[in-house]
Amino acid sequence: MTKLLGISGSLRKGSFNTSLLRAAVDLAPEGTEIEIASIAGIPLYDGDVEAEQGIPETVKALKERIAAADGLLIVTPEYNNSIPGVLKNAIDWLSRPPADLPRVFGDKPIALMGTSPGPYGTVLSQAAWLPVLRSLGARAYFGGRVAIPFASKAFDADGKLIDERGKKSVTELLAGFAKSIAT
Hints:
This protein is α/β, with parallel strands linked by helices.
């Protein structure tokens, strides 16, 4: 069984990206389980807080879940043609202290996907994540792309993915990602 941890980079209750993550859980190939984690409750990174109080418990718990997973699925929004601040902030905390990087992210397979209301999905956000993943020592998966455009049409009022092309691209990405981890 391949165990993936999925994280949505949005805190909004009605987030299209969180809906996309839930769709990924349903579309995962046989033998692959996706557990959903949240970045809610992670405070803004502050080196003084880290020095005085250490790593917050929410961060410690998420680090353990990432370290235990076979791979990480990051479902990223795109804000102003780049990375969403709340997700980058979470990754910044998760990278502390630097001595933990090899255990948490070292050679960790990571796949990116996302959706946005615009016509290009999250292509620019996903590209902006690549130097960050490199810095973490993670192994980015390049075997497919899910960047679903026009999110308001791709999901129904209940947040269910209804776009057939989107479903197909999620299914293909997850199958390839899981296979790359298993081999």
